[in-house]
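EI: anyone free to look at a 132-residue chain?
SC: sure, send it
EI:
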Amino acid sequence: MIALFIDSDPFTERAKACIATNPESLIVSDFAAAEFASAVARLTRTRRLTTDDATALFGTFDAWKARTTEMAYATTPDISAAAAVLRRLDLNLRAPGAINIAVADRLGATLATFDERMATAARTLGVRVATA
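SC: here you go
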């Protein structure tokens, strides 16, 4: 989601095209929102964003999320499903990707990601992946 809000991100155009070409309602999980916050904090710590820029970005994200998306919550069964998927040694996943896939799977949602390994794993698990 960072790419939707930081124009210098290499995936910005692709992210905007993905939103435009996938007409389904947008769902953002609390876990994905936490990942967004982590990415903004990392950009601030590495001085790619100022504290003021980060604060403004949080406000823009929160307003967008409230206005444009449905909120979903990661559940204990999502974490359990992610842990089971991570034990599949044929998939190249890390915990955050597995959790996002588990939430999308439970909701019957299409997953939006530019992480090719995560997209491949999601497809292997039968989760639709947005194209852009």
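EI: Strands lie at 26-29, 69-72.
SC: 👍
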